[in-house]
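Q: Joint fold for the lines below.
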Amino acid sequence: MLNELAPIELIAILAAVTDNQPRVMTLRGGEALPSGPFESSHRSLQSGLRAWIEAQTGHPVGYLEQLYTFADKDRDPRSEYAAASQRISIGYLGLVREQDAAGAGHPAWHSWYQYFPWEDHRNRSPEQLPRITKRLIVWAGDDPMRIQRVDYLFGLNGKAWNEELVLQRYELMYEAGLVDGAEFGRPMASDNRRILATGISRLRAKIKYSPVVFELMPESFTLLQLQRTVEALSGLHLHKPNFRRQIDQQELVEETSEVSSGASGRPARLFRYRPAILEARMLSGARLPLSRS
Amino acid sequence: MLNELAPIELIAILAAVTDNQPRVMTLRGGEALPSGPFESSHRSLQSGLRAWIEAQTGHPVGYLEQLYTFADKDRDPRSEYAAASQRISIGYLGLVREQDAAGAGHPAWHSWYQYFPWEDHRNRSPEQLPRITKRLIVWAGDDPMRIQRVDYLFGLNGKAWNEELVLQRYELMYEAGLVDGAEFGRPMASDNRRILATGISRLRAKIKYSPVVFELMPESFTLLQLQRTVEALSGLHLHKPNFRRQIDQQELVEETSEVSSGASGRPARLFRYRPAILEARMLSGARLPLSRS
DNA sequence: TTCGATGTACTCGATTCGAGTATAAATGGA
DNA sequence: TCCATTTATACTCGAATCGAGTACATCGAA
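A: Joint structure:
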């Protein structure tokens, strides 16, 4: 049998946090993620993707982690490619400290809550959420499986909201026909929004047992800045004393001799990530607290 | 630029547990994993791999989960393909209830501890482990980073053994040149042993927060059988009272009216996995206890 | 100097978890 | 028959963790 495979596509979810907003790097007016074909000149998948990101966004990337490999049929059944050739996309999650981007394809940072407004639970519940759940309950009808899924994914009927289930919520809304137009969240080209949801899910899960947050932090930072970053990513409001307790119990950071300046309120001590502990925590797991309010 | 990509390879780690041994399906006398190229006739990556598994092992597969996508350069730099074309392999983890296999390629089940003898900590520590750590300490010399890695990965100097780090341990041993020959564990063709290590790592991590174990269990089982299965997978010895406490707290199983027979000792009640809870636990996370001894 | 915002230190109770102990019920061999 | 063995099952106890709340300190700015 002949292999008529289309080129393999590398695609990146590039995340940063600025002004307490989690942001994702987009192209073409915010409707696409950086991507490009894997070519035989690339030494590896990672280095190939790095080259594409540099070219399209002019932004250097530090941390880069493989997410998932999508095939067309697994992706969007409505795609024009579905019946033709099988395209394979390998998705990666990259973490950077935000800088201005200038590259081909009009790179721009957008808050990822533009695409998933229902995922931001930092202050109360998002406005759109009641309308979404109402529509979902109608969609579920009296099918017990559907009702159970809606309840667990959206924290209804006494179930707790689980911030990690970004992808599953998006897929449920997709099934229920709520993400076709622009009514709930900003759309993206083909299935890029689903790939973004995959990345957010992974990142929200990962900050709980791995010190990846520090990839997003500047050299030195206050503990509140660190907390606000974790809150931005997880979409949850955290309990300040508990957050600080965990951070120093884990000995993830060490004091610098400096203090913050400029902002109002009492100046805070500046901390830096402990470089010596890096490898060790990467392996054995550093827990970040995610208690509510 | 021309794309001279070799076909995409699908590769499976098929796991089962019988006689308290975790087993993996192999071909060609235990030196290779089931695999085959992704073809344009396949409807999806998963269904393509299912077809290859059926053909090569004659074994039906239920649960199948994507693991990781490897490119040659990411894999084994010594490979003959490294300088030629870029071959991509997509690895999957499949869970089955073991049956006799009969297909092309001489399918056979092997305990995965044949390939990783140092990973079985159910009774004392494995014999080979002292020899391995001795060699690693020599390799580390006085490089503090290397010493730290060895300590954390192999539970030395007061660090605890973390059973999930199968892949990281294998890669450290690879760097130290301990897995070239057959001295430590049985070798496999090309980098199949590393892919197997990836699968074991993922499965050991996953049984802690997801009820995937039940994919490996028969219809009804005693709580001790369930515990022995978890122990086989994790390579740890568990505390019986605590294990049972967690199982019924989680309400993962329900009693059948039957009791076990045949074995010596007091007959045990038979349980079955609660089908109603399936979807819910899949989403929100079911914890299995992994306390030592 | 008072307000507002932030930083920092403590307390308390609920839950979880590792570890140990004790007892019950069956089998099989002496 | 009875006892040793094996497995099942129930209970206890202390340490650690975690969510939640309270109190107080310290700065800048109005």
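Q: Anything notable?
A: Residues 222-224, 240-241, 244, 263-269 of chain A lie near DNA strand C (CB under 10 Å from a C1'). Residues 118-185 of chain A form one domain.
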